[in-house]
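Contributing new records

If you add data, match the layout below exactly. Sequence lines come first and carry their own label; structure lines follow with theirs. Keep one chain per record. Anything else will be rejected by the validation script.
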Amino acid sequence: MDIMPLSKEEWRELFQFWIREDPVSEEDFDYFYGLNIPAFQKSLIYTAREDGRIIGYVRCIKDSDFALFVRDIEIEEDYQGLGIAENILEAIREDYCELELYYLSFNRDEDMYYKSLGLNKTGNIYK
């Protein structure tokens, strides 16, 4: 399995991962790209790949030179529970070791996952 940052050229693959339909039409991708380009330009996205196919990703928002906020974690169902999210998060921590890493939580599943990592919650943020 490979863990790597997502390049701008790979956004189509990420969209394909999200909708899980094959193939993505040019019209659908243009719509998706237009809606999400501002968020993507401000995001740091790392992917996990198996045989070149995205099986999971973590999206962070960088707050200047102070912190990274983990906003999204998604792993394909068949690959959950194998430590893939932890591997992606470790790669991010290694590449951005000078920044504090915070985890934003907006639902019960995220709460349970972050607690399983031993993180402590204040408001909607884990550290």
